[in-house]
Design brief:
By secondary structure, the chain is an alpha/beta fold. The chain has a single domain, classed as TIM Barrel (Alpha-Beta Barrel). Helix content is about 40%, strand content about 15%. An eight-stranded parallel β-barrel has the order 1-2-3-4-5-6-7-8, surrounded by four helices. Strand 5, helix 5 and strand 6 form a beta-alpha-beta unit. Helix 2 packs parallel to helix 3, helix 3 packs parallel to helix 4 and helix 4 crosses helix 5. It is globular. The mean pLDDT is about 95.
């Protein structure tokens, strides 16, 4: 049972549903919810509502920082500053609410990065260091997520990720589905001493489609069995709530056999 209590859910599709209705829906089937802090669920806008609602539900909360319009490696100073401040505001809201883990995406190469790709890399690290320090001062743990196989990713290799994690003194969110698209699952597992969060979803090794567990070819059972010593949560990142329930059933079976 203790393993099942570590299974949570997250989905960008949830952000269109009022936060009180999502609390009710998620709590019926999960003990952990990773709130995607975007759109109607942008944490600074609803922190008071969450503090009012949360005590009525037996839910442990995590947060995924904004990513849709954010680039912490931007060569544009105003965009860079706005991106970092947007994440900082979420971290501060987590401090107020009492949420201990925030997953963040690294920056990415913009169309202008061809002018100075090394400058974009440098800005990415500088932003992570700033955010890591900001989070630590507020007793919030940052988890930097490995990205899928897309051409504008900055931190692509496990070595680059480890260097970033150590420079910024932050943890890592291991995204199993993303690693399956880059064919680097084993490389990422070597960083398991840094894992503070794990995202689980399936695909066929090409596109990041966030299928329910068991639908694609990601070696989920094998990979989870190799994460000995990891004591954090497993967040099922899905397209919708129906997929969440399908993934939960499949993933519970995997955990029961490990």
């Amino acid at each position: 049972m203790w393993k099942n209590e570590r299974i949570g859910v997250a989905s960008p599709s949830f952000v269109t549903t009022p936060i009180d209705k999502m609390f009710e829906m998620v709590s019926n089937d999960f003990r952990i919810w990773e709130i995607t802090s975007e759109y109607k669920h942008y944490l600074p806008d609803i922190e008071k509502e969450i503090m009012r609602i949360a005590p009525s539900y037996n839910l442990n909360l995590q947060v995924h920082a904004p990513f849709a319009d954010v680039n912490i490696a931007s060569l544009n100073d105003s965009i860079l500053q706005a991106s970092v401040v947007s994440v900082e505001k979420v971290i501060e809201s987590c401090r107020k609410i009492g949420i201990g883990i925030v997953t963040i995406h690294p920056g990415f190469y913009s169309p202008m990065s061809f002018v100075d790709s090394e400058g974009a890399k440098k800005r990415n690290i500088q932003s992570l260091v700033r955010l890591g320090r900001y989070a630590k001062e507020r007793s919030v743990r940052l988890a930097l997520e490995n990205m899928p196989a897309i051409q504008w990713v900055i931190l692509e290799s496990a070595e680059d990720l480890r260097n970033a994690l150590e420079s910024a003194e932050i943890g890592m969110c291991f995204d199993l589905g993303h690693a399956n698209t880059t064919k680097r699952i084993e490389d990422m597992i070597r960083l398991k001493d840094k894992f503070v969060n794990v995202h689980v979803h399936d695909n066929f090794g090409e596109k990041d489609v966030h299928l329910p567990v068991g639908i694609g070819n990601a070696p989920i059972s094998k990979t989870i069995s190799e994460l000995k010593g990891y004591k954090g949560n497993y967040i099922l990142e899905v397209r919708n709530f129906s997929d969440a329930l399908e993934s939960k059933r499949a993933f519970e079976k995997i955990l029961s056999e490990i």
